[in-house]
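Pinned message: reference record for Oligosaccharide flippase family protein
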Amino acid sequence: MEKINQLKAGAILSYISMGLGYIISIVYTPIMLRLLGQSEYGLYNLVASIVAYLGVLNFGFGSAYMRYYSRYKIKSDKEKIATLNGMFLIIFTIIGVVAVVAGIILAMNIEIIFGAQLTVSELVKAKVLMMIMVVNLAISFPTIVFTSHITANEKFIFQKIVNMISVVINPFIVLPVLFLGYGSIGLVVASTILNIVIGIINVCYCIKKLQMRFSIRNMDFTLMKEMTVFSSFIFIYMIIDQINWNIDKFILGRFKGTEEVAIYSVGAQFNSYLISIAAVVSGVFIPRVNKIVSEELKSKKLTDLFIRIGKIQFVLVALVVMGFTIFGESFINIWAGETYSKSYAVAMILMIPMGLVLIQNIGIEIRKAQDLHQTPAKFMLCIAIINIIITIPMAKEYGAIGSAIGTSIAVVINQIFINFYYFLVCGLDIKLFLKQILIFSKGLIIPIIVGCLMISNKGKFNDITFLSMVIPYIIIYFISLYYFSFEKYEKDLFIGQPYNKISNIVNRYVKK
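Predicted structure (tokens):
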């Protein structure tokens, strides 16, 4: 019962935390943009994108820890668990030291890394930022053992509450530092201090509450080899993510300067919102995917699930993409300022192809459950390299918009391959999926017409007045989909169940 409560509460707190994160980001980011200025904000993102590459040094061992911890916990082998804890603490501590050494080498060669586009003062500040960020990263590595231990023990309530507190407190720590004029250096120092405090809380909880113990005797090197093989493909996916979503900033910083990095970063932020919204939907269905994979006659069931979840994600993804197409430019002008007007084009170029990927997001979990993720990982790594080759000339010529185009081309090429892979190897009926999505999309006709009319008459309104039409547009969107696209499952999911619950409450109240 406690396990079920932890899962339910953890899921609810995840949604609350994500919602708070969005709200705080929307309120906090424009203040930060104006206090830092476009150039320094770009410099901050540029350095962060380089340090993020050091994050792959964890090699995906966090996932490996939970897998092997669960294996030993079932057997109640406390000695093995203690040895596992000790082994991972040593591994991540060594990785942290390696990260510091690598960071020092990068900082000492900052001029070579960023080229001639940065000024002398920017290079000096970049060096300081990199050193602080590397220290922050190095500290975070050993704490992975403790956060993984909390997750493996399914203590989701504690974990999510700590994460939520961190999200809420962060701007209250950072903003005073920015108002005092300490700029990006003050920002990363404040974030590092918060990271240390959160790390200490997790350590204390594991040792005192969960009775976490460590042993460095009888180190199992056979297990180490097995974990390395298990983590290798996770490591490849981590590299791919870093290349696809951080290389653009580095290329822009190298060839165009910090202002273009800032413009790209603002646009990419909206794309990250879209990705996280879709990830929540697919994440809920992971246990069901694994259950179906273990059954016979699984292909039809997997295709049915693939289509059903695809439709749900289509509803959310299409709303975000279409809504941003109509209202995004006005929102960015108010939110970030007119100096970031090109960020609208960057966001659109990234979001449209990404939207097509996200409606098939559950496919990632399907191929993982079938242990068919190795070939896509290798192909995606090749595409990530092609992304770099395409993006460099595009960034040189067209700046932030060119970088976004290069990344989007790579995303489209990758998704074409993945669809063939789903069809030929994973047993998913992609033709049926595409047919169902095409039929389902007829409900978008009215929202598209309304959206075109809004855009064509936009000049009659100022930005604030235009944004007041967002709520009416969302209502039109859902009414159109309800009558022209939704079947019983979607109606119950989006409208029916909440309506029935409200009706039951009202009826009970009336009867009283």
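Pinned by admin. Summary line: Residues 35-219 form one domain.
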